[in-house]
Amino acid sequence: MLGSALAEGPVAQALDRGARGDVPESLQRPLVTLPADWQAVAEELDGVGGLGADGVVYRLTFPRYDLDLSSHGVGGLVEASFAAFARYPDGRTMLMGDVVATEAEVQRVTDALQDHGLAQTAIHKHLPAHRPQLWWTHVHGAAVDPVALARAMRAGLDATATPGPRQPDTSPPAGLDTAAIDAALGAKGRSEDGYRFSFARRETVSDGGRVVPGAMGVTTAVTFFPAGGGRAAVTGDFVMIAGEVQRVIKILRNGGISVVELHNHFLNDQPRLFYLHFWAVGDAVPLARTLRTAKAATNLASSS
Questions:
Q1: Percent of the chain whose pLDDT exceeds 90
Q2: SS3 (DSSP) at 264
Q3: Is residue 82 helix, strand or coil?
Q4: How far apart, in whole angstroms, are the C-alpha atoms of residue 10 and residue 84?
Q5: Quick one: angle between helices 146-158 and 106-115, nearest 10?
Q6: Pairing relationship of beta strands 48-51 and 58-63 according to DSSP bridges
Q7: 10 Å Cβ neighbour count for 285?
Q8: Which comes out higher in pLDDT, residue 278 or 9?
């Protein structure tokens, strides 16, 4: 019943408007909200997260702590699903996020999301030669009722073995010189199941006539994990406009960083954005310097 209601209601209507190109002349900017405005969403999703300092994006994360994830023999990797919500002047809430699914789970996730009226905007992998094999499916929806969106996201997560909420490990990863990484990358990272950086685009990004803040998933993301022997594994993705893609690829490859996937995360974004996932294992400082050079080749703001 819920799937039918969403498929015929606000989620499907909003997506249909975007597909037809029926976009308002002036973009809607997200509203400032309070934590209490998202209490029902938090209860429905039972995740770990919160409202950003600017009060605009409410974001929850769902780490796959149930998986012993490794790539090219580097273990201890942690990947997470997320759901990000923002409210707009027309009374609708936008949901963007992705669900991390194993090979055995991904079709069940697809069915659950489709049954509940959420759009899938990308299905791909983030890591090379990893075990177990994982897929990331990005989701999008807009509706008057944010709890209906949360319930649809919950259905996608419930099609996986994602465990219940747990606070991330915020201790500095052993074996990583985080101060040296900060200096080489030119930004301050945060310890959260690894050592992480996030950089938003400088220009205004929109989808379906709504401004999409960086915290909704429109960021360049970089994560360092200890790889033993003084080395680090680095993974993440660059968000780029078309004219930046080839420059970034060349910079990464010249610095010994592998290119994993190139794709879109949205169906109707403006400007059209491309995401390039990468992977490398080696001395963290030279890798961070290469990433800084690649970052400078794109129109990114400071660390967010």
A1: 86
A2: coil
A3: strand
A4: 18
A5: 160
A6: antiparallel
A7: 15
A8: 278
DSSP run (H or E) holding 105: none
pLDDT in tens, 199-216: 999 999 999 999 999 999
Amino acid at 292: R
Most confident of 23-27, 72-76, 109-113: 109-113
User: Is there a contact between 261 and 210 (Cβ–Cβ < 8 Å)?
Assistant: no
| 196 Cβ contact list (under 8 Å, min separation 6) | 189, 190, 221, 222, 223, 224
CA 138 to chain centre: 8
For every residue of 172-183, DSSP letters joined together read: PPTT--HHHHHH
pLDDT of residue 16: 37
Q: Copy the structure tokens of residue 186.
A: 């030119």
Neighbours of 32 (CB within 10 A): 11
Helices (H), 186-283: 245-254
| DSSP line for 38-53 | GHHHHHHH--EEEE-T
pTM, full prediction: 0.89
| Separation of alpha carbons 158 and 27, rounded Å | 34
Is the pLDDT score of 176 beyond 50?
A: yes
How does pLDDT run across 98-107, given as a tens digit for each residue?
Answer: 999 999 999 9
Q: How many CB atoms lie within 10 A of CB 229?
A: 6
